């Protein structure tokens, strides 16, 4: 039995981190004896290629429809569904099992990240123009798929909160078949390293500086708030990331000798080494369907501090696996750091529990076993 996985992007020799989490799934399925072929939706004429033992085809929606109908796959697996994939699905002449993962932007209303469009009048007008075109088409696509009477579709949401707070209210209806399965937090990639009490003075943040939903301005404001406290001189901050907002946001932090700004994209294989050198992961957010970077830090044994947004509390048990404070609350986030610094036993207990907790929820074997069961139709 062969399955076809369709995605909007996939790793290759030039972009090894492009949807790398999808590739890790494919390799895990293959390890369990599931034969998977991969297609990336593309309008460019590109030759088939191999990456890490996986063959990748680049097809448009018409070529994809022809492929699906000619090979009669046991199942179709889709990540980041878009209109072109949808048009290809509508051309199916048989009824394979279809599993569609809903991760984030592809299943949300435009206004769920409204603050990203307030930087300029032009940016806001562009989104408003798309509201009745792209976003309306996207919503209609999801509504049709949620209620389709002939296609055998199961949807996978990465969190219960993402389903209830974002997707279902947006679409206006709940799908007939769905599962809640998070993205993988792989302990092989992010191994646990036991912390010592001195690690609580070392705080890191690894985030893109491309949009306001990453809340890097909150990270900055927390540091500025703490700079007025006696405890500040004992702390060390390392901020990693890049994007058009980096210089503007971090400029006020250049005055501090204990705040180190690392401008640049951090390859995934370097992140565990950064984790190993720190004890606290300062991870404010304005929008998260799961919070993967927080989960990766937890797996490494860092104590996360974040905001009560989206699915954060599903994956960070407050005061056990980390500290969760209200949205945009700079003072409480700073107080959380102070608390961990003053209570090293609680810090060490949270560090150990953070790893155990996230692995019990999103560890590789947990996630893959659930997904394989869905792929096999519950067999």
UniProtKB/TrEMBL annotation:
Keywords: Transferase. Transmembrane segments: none annotated. Gene3D superfamilies: Glycogen Phosphorylase B. The keyword Transferase applies. It comes from the Bacteria. One of its GO terms (molecular function) is transferase activity. Coiled coil: none annotated. This is Glycosyltransferase involved in cell wall biosynthesis.
């Amino acid at each position: 039995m062969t399955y076809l996985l369709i995605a909007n992007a996939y790793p290759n020799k030039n972009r090894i981190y492009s949807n790398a989490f999808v590739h890790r799934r494919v390799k895990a399925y293959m390890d369990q004896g599931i034969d998977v072929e991969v297609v990336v939706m593309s309008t460019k004429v590109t030759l088939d290629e191999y990456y890490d033992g996986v063959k990748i085809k680049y097809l448009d929606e018409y070529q994809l429809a022809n492929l699906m109908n000619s090979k009669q796959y046991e199942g179709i697996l889709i990540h980041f569904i878009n209109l072109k994939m949808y048009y290809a699905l509508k051309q199916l002449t048989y009824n394979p099992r279809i599993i569609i993962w809903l991760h984030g932007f592809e299943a949300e209303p435009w206004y769920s990240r409204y603050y990203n469009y307030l930087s300029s009048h032009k940016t806001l007008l562009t989104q408003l123009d798309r509201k009745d075109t792209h976003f309306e088409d996207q919503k209609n696509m999801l509504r049709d798929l949620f209620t389709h009477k002939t296609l055998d579709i199961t949807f996978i949401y990465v969190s219960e909160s993402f389903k209830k707070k974002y997707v279902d209210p947006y679409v206006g209806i709940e799908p007939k078949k769905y599962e809640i399965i998070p993205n993988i937090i792989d302990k092989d990639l992010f191994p646990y390293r036991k912390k010592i009490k001195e690690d609580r003075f070392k705080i890191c943040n690894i985030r893109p500086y491309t949009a306001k939903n990453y809340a890097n301005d909150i990270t900055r404001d927390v540091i500025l708030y703490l700079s007025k406290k006696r405890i500040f001189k004992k702390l060390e901050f390392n901020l990693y990331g890049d994007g058009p907002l980096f210089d503007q946001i971090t400029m006020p932090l250049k005055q501090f000798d204990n705040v180190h700004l690392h401008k640049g994209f951090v390859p995934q294989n370097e992140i565990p080494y950064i984790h190993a050198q720190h004890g606290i992961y300062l991870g404010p957010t304005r929008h998260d369907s799961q919070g993967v970077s927080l989960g990766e830090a937890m797996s490494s044994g860092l104590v996360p501090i974040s905001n009560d947004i989206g699915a954060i509390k599903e994956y960070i048990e407050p005061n056990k696996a980390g500290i969760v404070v209200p949205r945009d609350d700079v003072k409480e986030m700073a107080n959380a750091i102070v608390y961990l610094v003053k209570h090293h036993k609680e810090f060490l207990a949270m560090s150990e529990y953070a790893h155990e907790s996230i692995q019990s929820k999103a560890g590789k074997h947990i996630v893959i076993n659930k997904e394989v069961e869905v792929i096999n139709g519950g067999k």
